[in-house]
C-alpha cells in the first residue's frame, strides 16, 4: 500500500458549493488522491501518494480555474489579497466614468463633443453613431477582459456545472457585446454601465469576503511554530545541536531555562518549573523533578534539565492536538450556505429562461435585435449581484459594528447557527477566570515570642520573593507592593525547586531565618502549624489553589493563598444564558476542587462540570452534546407538540488556550477570548477582545441579527428575480431599466446590511 502524505492548500476564487464540487472532482481524479474541500475556511485537505507533489496539486486546482497556495504560505496569501485590492481600485477607476456617462447626460454630451473635436483636429474618421459610446466601450474593455478574466475563466472551466460566475460572465459579456453592436448599428441604447457596474460590485464584494476570511486556517501554522526546529542531544560526553528530525526515542535532550521542550519525555536529571499554559490552558506552573513527565511545546522556566525522549514526531502531545484541529477544520459543516443552495438551482434556471426567451421571441417572428435585447434583459436583471453581495456586505458591516464592541467575526459559517445555540461549554482559566495568578488570602498569626508584626513580615516576604521569577512569587510581590510593603536587608538566599525559598533577613536588628514554601517543606523546619494556618491550608486545598507558608526562625507566622480569580461578570453572564434557556457546561484541565469551586460561584451545576480534562476530552464532550436532544422546551408549548419541537443541541464553545483549539473548531459555534493564545483565536469563529463575558452575549446577538439580515437580503434577491425575470422575458423591460433595477437591488442589499446594530 502506497504511503500517503498530507497537504493542506489555501484556495481562491470559490463562489458557491458548485465550485467546491469542481475542485474536489479535479483533485480526486488524480490516482490515489483523496481531497476534501471546505468552503467556509477556503481550504483543501488532501491525502496523496508521495510521488504526487505539492506542485502537481496546486497546478490541478489552477487548471480547474481557481487559485491555490500552501496553507502555511502566509506571504503568498498576503500578496493575493493585495492583488485583489488593486483589482478593486482599477475597476473603480474605469467603471466610474462609464456609469457617469450613462447616468449624467450632460457629461455624456461633453465627452461626445470633446471626442468629435479631437478627431476632427487630427483629421481622423468620425465614428459610427455615438463617440461617447465608443469611449464607454473602450473604458469598459479592461474591466471585461482583464479585471474580470478570473470570473470568465471559472465560467469556462465550469461550463458543464454552471456557477454564479457563469451568470456574471454571461451577463457582463452579453451587455458588453450588445453595446458594441448597438453603437455600431444604432440599434438601441448601450449597456456598458451594466457590464462595468456588475463586475465592479462583484470584485468589491469578493475582496471584502477575502479580507474577512484571511485568517482562516492559521491555527495549524501557529501550532506547528511551537515545535523547536533544533534540539540539544547528549552524545556520549558531548552535547550536540541537531535538527529536530534527527531525534529518536530514548535520546537524552538538554533543555535550558526559557526553551521549549522539543518532545514528550521523562525528566532524568535536574529540577525546574514548567509553563504548560499554552497547551493545558492552566496558569499554575508545574514543578518537575527526575521522573516527571513533560510535553512538547511546554516552556522550561528556571532550571536546566535533561529529559529522555518518549514520544517523537507525530506521536507527541502537540502533534496530536494539531491533528485534532486539522480533522475538525476539514470536516464539512452540517449546514450549507443558503446562498449556495439557492444558486445551485437559480443559475441553471436563469440560463434556460434566457435561452428560451431568445428562441421564443425570435421564432415568433420578432427581429434578431428585439430577441437579443429581451434575452439580454433577462440575463442582466437576473445577474446575481444581490446574491453575491448578500453575505459579504452584511459580514463587512457586522465586522465593523462588532469591532466597535470588541467582537471580531472570522467566518460566515458562525452566522448560520448563532440563533439556534442552546448549549454553551466554558473553559475555566482565562475564560471564566482572569487567567492571572493573584493572592486570594493572606493569613497572619501573631507570635509574641518573636515580636514580628505584620508590616515587618510583609517586608521580609517582599525582600525574598522579589528575587524570584516564579509566577507565584511574582503574584505575591504584586500583592505586597499594592499594600506598600518595603524591603529589609537579607543574605544567604537559597531556592529549592518544588519546595520554596529561604534567606536570612534582618528584622528588628536581628538576622532571622525566613522560609517561604509549600506546607510540607515548611513543616519539616517547624514544630507545628497554628490552627489558623492549618485552616487556611485546608481552605486553599478545597478551592484548588496554591498555598505558601511563611516561617520565621522556625515558627509559622503566615499562610498565603494564591490562585486565579473569577471574572466579575461571570456569574451574571451565566445567569443571562440560563434565562435565555441555554444550558451551560464547564470543562477544565484543573482538578475537581478548583473546578467545583468555580462552578458553584458562577452558577453552573456540578453535574455539568468536568475536571482533569485533556484536549481530546473536550472534543469528546462537544461531540457527545451535539448528538443529544435539547432538553429546553418553551413553556407555552402544549405537551402534544413538545416532542415535535425537540432539536439536536447546538453547542457554543468558549475558550482561550491551545488545549481548547480542537474543541473550538469541533463546536457548532466557537468564541475565543482576545487575551488567549493565537491558536485559540484563529481556531474560533468569533474573538472577544473585551475582557468580559458579556461580549459573548453581544456576539450572539450580533450573529443572530447578521444572519437575519443575510436571510432578508437573500429573500429580497429571490423575490426580485422571481418578479423581474418574468417581466423581462415578456419584453416589458428594456435592458437599460433592467440594469437600473439590478443596481437598485444591490443598493437595497447594502442599505439593509447597514441596519445591523448591537443593542
Largest sheet: 7 strands, mixed
Structural class: alpha+beta
The Cα radius of gyration reads: 34 Å
Amount of helix: 40-55%
Query: Which class of the domain at 438-563 in CATH terms?
Result: Alpha Beta
Low-confidence stretches: 73-78, 212-220, 331-336, 632-644
Kindly report the spatial arrangement of strands forming the biggest sheet.
Answer: 14-26-25-24-15-22-23
Strand percentage, roughly? 15-25%
Query: What is the 3D form?
Result: elongated
**Mean pLDDT across all residues, rounded?**
78
CATH domain fold name of the domain at 438-563 = Calcium-transporting ATPase, cytoplasmic domain N
The name of the CATH superfamily of the domain at 438-563 reads Calcium-transporting ATPase, cytoplasmic domain N
- Terminal CA distance: 59 Å
Number of DSSP-assigned strands: 26
Quickly count the helices: 28
CATH architecture of the domain at 438-563, by name, is 3-Layer(aba) Sandwich
3D architecture notes:
Residues 73-78, 212-220, 331-336 and 632-644 have low confidence and may be disordered. The strands form five sheets. A seven-stranded mixed β-sheet has the order 14-26-25-24-15-22-23, sandwiched between helices. A six-stranded antiparallel β-sheet has the order 6-5-7-13-8-11, with no helix packed on it. Strands 16-21-20-19-18-17 form a six-stranded antiparallel β-sheet, with helices on both faces. The chain contains 28 helices and 26 strands. Helix 6 crosses helix 7 and helix 7 packs antiparallel against helix 13 (368-381). The protein is elongated. The longest helix is centred in the C-terminal third of the chain and has 36 residues, at 694-729. Among the domains are: 4-71, Alpha-Beta Plaits, CATH 3.30.70; 228-261 and 264-311, Distorted Sandwich (Calcium-transporting ATPase, cytoplasmic transduction domain A); 332-406 and 712-759; 438-563, Calcium-transporting ATPase, cytoplasmic domain N (3-Layer(aba) Sandwich), CATH 3.40.1110. The protein is α+β, with helices and mostly antiparallel strands.
Amino acid at each position: 500500500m502506497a504511503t500517503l502524505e498530507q497537504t493542506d492548500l489555501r484556495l481562491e476564487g470559490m463562489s458557491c458549493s458548485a465550485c467546491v464540487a469542481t475542485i474536489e472532482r479535479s483533485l480526486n481524479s488524480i490516482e490515489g488522491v483523496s481531497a476534501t474541500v471546505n468552503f467556509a475556511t477556503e481550504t483543501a485537505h488532501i491525502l496523496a501518494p508521495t510521488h504526487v507533489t505539492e506542485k502537481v496539486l496546486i497546478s490541478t486546482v489552477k487548471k480547474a480555474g481557481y487559485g491555490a497556495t500552501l496553507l502555511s504560505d502566509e506571504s503568498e496569501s498576503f500578496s493575493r489579497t493585495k492583488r485583489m485590492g488593486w483589482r478593486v481600485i482599477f475597476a473603480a477607476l474605469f467603471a466610474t466614468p462609464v456609469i457617469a456617462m450613462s447616468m449624467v447626460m450632460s457629461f455624456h454630451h461633453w465627452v461626445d463633443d470633446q471626442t468629435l473635436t479631437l478627431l476632427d483636429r487630427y483629421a481622423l474618421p468620425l465614428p459610427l453613431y455615438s463617440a461617447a459610446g465608443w469611449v464607454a466601450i473602450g473604458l469598459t474593455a479592461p474591466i471585461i477582459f482583464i479585471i474580470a478574466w478570473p470570473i470568465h475563466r471559472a465560467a469556462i472551466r465550469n461550463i458543464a456545472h454552471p456557477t454564479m460566475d457563469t451568470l456574471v460572465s454571461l451577463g457582463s459579456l452579453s451587455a458588453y457585446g450588445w453595446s458594441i453592436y448597438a453603437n455600431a448599428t444604432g440599434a438601441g441604447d448601450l449597456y456598458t454601465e451594466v457590464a462595468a457596474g456588475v463586475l465592479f460590485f462583484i470584485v468589491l464584494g469578493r475582496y471584502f469576503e477575502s479580507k474577512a476570511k484571511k485568517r482562516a486556517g492559521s491555527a495549524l501554522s501557529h501550532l506547528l511554530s511551537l515545535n523547536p526546529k533544533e534540539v540539544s542531544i547528549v552524545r556520549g560526553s558531548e552535547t550536540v545541536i541537531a535538527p529536530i528530525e534527527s531525534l529518536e526515542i530514548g535520546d537524552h535532550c538538554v533543555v535550558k531555562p526559557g526553551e521549549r521542550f522539543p518532545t514528550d519525555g521523562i525528566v532524568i536529571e535536574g529540577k525546574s518549573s514548567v509553563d504548560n499554559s499554552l497547551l493545558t490552558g492552566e496558569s499554575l506552573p508545574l514543578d518537575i523533578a527526575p521522573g516527571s513527565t513533560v510535553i512538547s511545546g511546554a516552556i522550561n522556566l528556571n532550571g536546566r534539565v535533561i529529559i529522555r525522549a518518549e514520544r517523537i514526531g507525530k506521536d507527541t502531545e502537540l502533534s496530536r492536538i494539531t491533528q485534532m484541529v486539522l480533522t475538525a477544520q476539514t470536516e464539512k459543516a452540517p449546514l450549507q450556505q443558503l446562498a449556495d443552495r439557492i444558486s445551485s438551482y437559480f443559475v441553471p434556471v436563469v440560463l434556460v429562461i434566457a435561452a428560451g426567451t431568445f428562441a421564443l421571441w425570435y421564432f415568433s417572428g420578432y427581429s434578431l435585435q428585439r430577441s437579443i435585447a429581451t434575452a439580454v434583459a433577462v440575463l442582466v436583471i437576473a445577474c446575481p449581484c444581490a446574491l453575491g453581495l448578500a453575505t459579504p456586505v452584511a459580514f463587512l458591516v457586522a465586522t465593523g459594528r462588532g469591532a466597535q464592541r470588541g467582537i471580531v467575526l472570522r467566518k460566515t459559517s458562525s452566522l448560520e447557527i448563532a440563533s439556534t445555540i442552546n448549549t454553551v461549554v466554558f473553559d475555566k482559566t482565562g475564560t471564566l477566570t482572569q487567567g492571572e495568578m493573584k493572592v486570594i488570602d493572606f493569613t497572619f498569626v501573631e507570635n509574641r515570642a518573636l515580636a514580628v508584626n505584620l508590616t515587618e513580615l510583609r517586608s521580609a516576604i517582599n525582600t525574598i520573593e522579589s528575587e524570584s521569577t516564579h509566577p507565584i512569587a511574582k503574584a505575591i510581590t504584586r500583592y505586597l507592593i499594592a499594600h506598600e510593603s518595603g524591603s529589609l536587608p537579607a543574605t544567604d538566599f537559597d531556592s529549592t525547586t518544588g519546595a520554596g525559598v529561604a534567606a536570612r533577613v534582618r528584622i528588628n536588628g536581628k538576622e532571622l531565618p525566613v522560609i517561604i514554601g509549600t506546607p510540607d517543606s515548611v513543616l519539616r523546619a517547624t514544630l507545628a502549624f497554628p490552627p489558623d494556618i492549618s485552616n487556611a491550608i485546608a481552605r486553599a486545598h478545597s478551592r484548588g489553589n496554591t498555598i505558601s507558608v511563611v516561617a520565621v526562625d522556625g515558627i509559622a507566622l503566615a499562610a498565603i493563598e494564591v490562585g486565579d480569580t473569577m471574572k466579575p461578570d461571570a456569574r451574571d453572564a451565566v445567569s443571562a444564558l440560563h434565562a435565555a434557556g441555554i444550558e451551560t457546561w464547564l470543562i477544565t484541565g484543573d482538578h475537581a476542587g478548583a473546578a467545583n469551586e468555580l462552578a458553584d460561584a458562577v452558577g453552573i451545576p456540578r453535574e455539568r462540570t468536568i475536571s482533569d480534562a485533556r484536549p481530546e476530552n473536550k472534543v469528546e464532550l462537544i461531540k457527545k452534546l451535539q448528538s443529544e436532544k435539547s432538553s429546553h422546551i418553551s413553556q407555552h408549548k402544549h405537551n402534544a407538540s413538545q416532542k415535535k419541537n425537540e432539536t439536536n443541541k447546538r453547542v457554543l464553545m468558549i475558550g482561550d488556550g491551545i488545549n481548547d483549539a480542537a474543541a473550538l473548531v469541533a463546536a457548532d459555534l466557537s468564541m475565543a477570548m482576545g487575551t488567549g493564545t493565537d491558536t485559540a483565536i484563529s481556531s474560533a469563529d468569533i474573538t472577544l477582545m473585551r475582557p468580559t463575558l458579556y461580549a459573548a452575549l453581544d456576539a450572539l446577538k450580533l450573529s443572530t441579527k447578521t444572519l437575519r439580515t443575510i436571510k432578508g437580503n437573500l429573500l429580497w434577491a429571490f423575490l426580485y428575480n422571481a418578479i423581474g425575470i418574468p417581466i423581462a422575458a415578456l419584453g416589458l423591460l428594456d435592458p437599460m431599466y433592467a440594469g437600473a433595477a439590478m443596481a437598485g437591488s444591490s443598493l437595497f442589499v447594502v442599505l439593509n446590511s447597514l441596519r445591523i446594530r448591537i443593542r
